[in-house]
Amino acid sequence: MPGLGEIIILLVVVGLFPVWVWALIDCVTKEPPTNDRTAWTLVVALGGVIGAGVYLVVRRPKRKAQFGR
After folding, report:
1. Would you say 23 and 52 are in contact if contact means Cβ atoms under 8 Å apart?
2. pLDDT band at 21 (very low <50, low <70, confident <90, very high)
3. C-alpha to C-alpha distance for 26 and 20, rounded to whole angstroms
4. 43, 54 in Cβ contact below 8 A?
5. CB 7 within 8 A of CB 14
6. 48-58 burial string, b = 16+ CB within 10 Å, else e?
């Protein structure tokens, strides 16, 4: 039977997975088709939750201000 620590880790991983997927989909579908899209897609895909967090904090607000989407 899993311990409390393992259950908490599982809940965190399961909770953050949708954020990672959402950031990856947002990057692929809404970034303009340039080398930036490729670079940010790699950051999110290979960086996991940390890469998704960086994208959502650093790039997404700039893109929304610049392109409105």
Report:
1. yes
2. very high
3. 10
4. yes
5. no
6. ebebbbbbbee
> Would you state the structure tokens that stand for residue 19, as one six-digit string?
């954020």
**Average of per-residue pLDDT across 29-38:** 88
Backbone angles phi, psi at 32, to 5 degrees: -65, 145
Q: Which residues of 12-24 are buried (b: 16+ CB within 10 A; e: fewer)?
A: eeeeeeeebeebb
Neighbours of 60 (CB within 10 A): 17
d(C-alpha 23, C-alpha 9), whole Å: 21
- The token pair at 51 is 């890469």
Position 66 scores a pLDDT of 79
What is the 3-state composition of the chain as percent helix, strand, coil, each rounded to the nearest 5? Answer: 85, 0, 15
